[in-house]
Each structure stands twice: as structure tokens, then as C-alpha cells.
Amino acid sequence: MPSRALIINADDLGYDPAVTRGILRSMREGVVSSATFMVNTPFSEAAAREARGLSIGLHLNLARGAPVWSGFPRELLGEDGGFVEARAGSLPADVVEAETFAQLARLAGLLGQPATHVDVHKHLHLHAGVLEGLARAARSVGIPVRSIDAEMRRTLRAQGVATNAHFVGDAGAEAYWTLERFASELAALPQDGVIELMCHPGYRPETLKSGYAAQREVELETFLHPQARELLAQAGIVPVDFRVLTSGS
Fold first, then answer.
1. Are the C-beta atoms of 214 and 223 separated by less than 8 Å?
2. Which of 18, 26, 78, 161 is close enough to 156 for a disulfide, judged by CB 3.0 to 4.6 Å?
3. Measured in whole angstroms, how far is the alpha carbon of residue 193 from the centre of its chain?
4. At 43, is the secondary structure helix, strand, or coil?
5. Is the pTM for the entire model greater than 0.70?
6. What are phi and psi of 84, to 5 degrees?
């Protein structure tokens, strides 16, 4: 494995058809090198058909939609039988582990290939039970998990789960990844370790109301811009995916 590696990962593949189109364009025409896939939405099957052959991990979704695991306890779900984001902190680790296995299996079935890694929609693995269940599943199948801070990184590594050494990215009222911020963050990257740059490129969602909508189009423009590729070339960086942590690819 190189002393420094950069993963540019787009979250939310399968969230909405317009978001998916933007993510796929950012990977095929831009500099995004990895994406994570929500497998329990009405748009998951269509997204998978378009994403085959790309570097795709699981965007573990415990915040919305129905669970994939048939044994998921009904009492832990909302009245509509779907996840309730506010209840994530009370999910038992055993339940999270089983649901993670089920979502990983669904991803492999839809894509015809295994997940490169796992991250979590809304960073719900900040909850101890979610992180524990996810870590068990990831260790069992031997895939990395995104860590977003030093404490999470220590916990994952202590449980034998590979993870990134550094993490950059956010989503708020303003688009996070402008071209200017991309340039400044590239200039400030650590000199060693696997670095994940989390992003949310896409077109404005067409089926869902989202607080991160027009911002996605700004990020898409950033990662498609010729200057983004030039900046990476000047830094001597060729973005990779999470398999760099497990296979040295």
C-alpha cells in the first residue's frame, strides 16, 4: 500500500434517480473514485443496473425505509414498518449486525459484486451499538469501515476492522465541496495514511425533499471541473477506493 492514498467517495447512490445520475457522472467523467449505495430504496435496483463495474461500497441505511433483514424486530421500527432515525441509538448491536449482513448481501445480489467497504447514512455509527454491530459484520466479511474521528478509528482498529486514517467532508446549508475548498484541502492533506474525502455530488433530488439539494449540483460541478483533475495531477495523486486497505490495489 502506498504511504498516502486518497479516496474520493460519493455518498447516497440509490437515494434518488437524479442523485444517482449525478454520482455516476462524477465517477465516469470526473474525479470521484468510489461511491456508497443505499440498497433499501425504491430506486436501488435501477441504480445498481447503472453502477455495475464501479467501485461501490454499502451506505448502511438505518435512518429511513424498510429493513432488509426479514427478522428485524417490529417494535424497533416506526408505525409504517420503516426505520426511525431518532431510534438508531437504541438499536441492539445484534440487530445492527444482522441488518448489516442483509444489506451487504442485497448489494452483492444487485451489483453482482461485493461491497468495497461500509459507511453509514447520517453517520449513525456514532452510536455505540450501531458501531459495535457494524464492526462485527465488517470483521466477519473482511471489509473496511469509514471512520469519521479518532475515537471511532481506535474502536474499529481495536476490533480488527480496517479503516481510513483521515476523514474530510461535511454537508450543511452551503455546498461543502467548492472548487476553492477542494484546492485548499488537497494542499493541506496529510503526507501519509489513507484519506477519505466524503462528498455528495448529484443533481437536485426529483422524488424526495432534501436539505442537501442544490448543494449537490455545486459539488458535481466541482468534481467534473477540469481543474479538479489538474489539481490532483499537480499533487501527484491518483484517487483510489477502499480496497487499498485490504488488497493493496
1. no
2. 161
3. 19
4. coil
5. yes
6. -125, 115
